[in-house]
User: Fold this.
Amino acid sequence: MIDILGSYCGTAPDAATWYWRWNTDLFLVVLLILSAAMFTRLPARRRSSGIVATIVLGIAFLSPLCALSVALFSARTLHHLLLIGVAAPLLAAALPGRSAPSPSIAFAVSTSVLWAWHLPAAYDAALANKALYWVMQASLLGSAWIYWRAVRHAAPPLALALVGVGVAQMGMLGAILTFVARPLYATHLSTTVPFGIGPLADQQLAGLAMWVLGLIPYAVIGALVMRSSWRRMVAA
Assistant:
């Protein structure tokens, strides 16, 4: 019988050994290899985006970051930012789909999923149940992929508006995590101590990461949209 209880990435590591904690889940390794092989069949630009996205997912789930995210909420935030801010837009470039998703629905779904998993009860439950953990990861990645597809398919003014509201919601969530006066997540109440940081400071660091690191993909993609729009105007 498959044990679905407990953290997928194992127990919380300590500060002296976390960087040796690589994930050797054979099923996941094979799945990522098959994904990379599938992407090699795509045209050049899409192929590169897909393969890099696979590498990013490998870093998120196979590297010691997986174990570190069990101990530190700030590491978990970095893990999620890799999914929604790096892997998802790369997958949107590799797999743009045949039809454009509704911008409003794409934004509403991706934002709702992100905020829902940051509710303390949902977050703590996901880290205590392997099946629910993968529901969390798949929904975060999938909804972000839909959002970035909507940005990619939209006309430049609408694409920039989507990027703008994406920045706003990410910044708002980061602000809540930074300025709330108490730790929100029971999972990390004791796991941060071996790293010399309290759970509240760790949570504040996570909020700042959302503010700074989390906004970089939006800024980069917004700049690419504006550059593309400028080139069309010049060519016309």
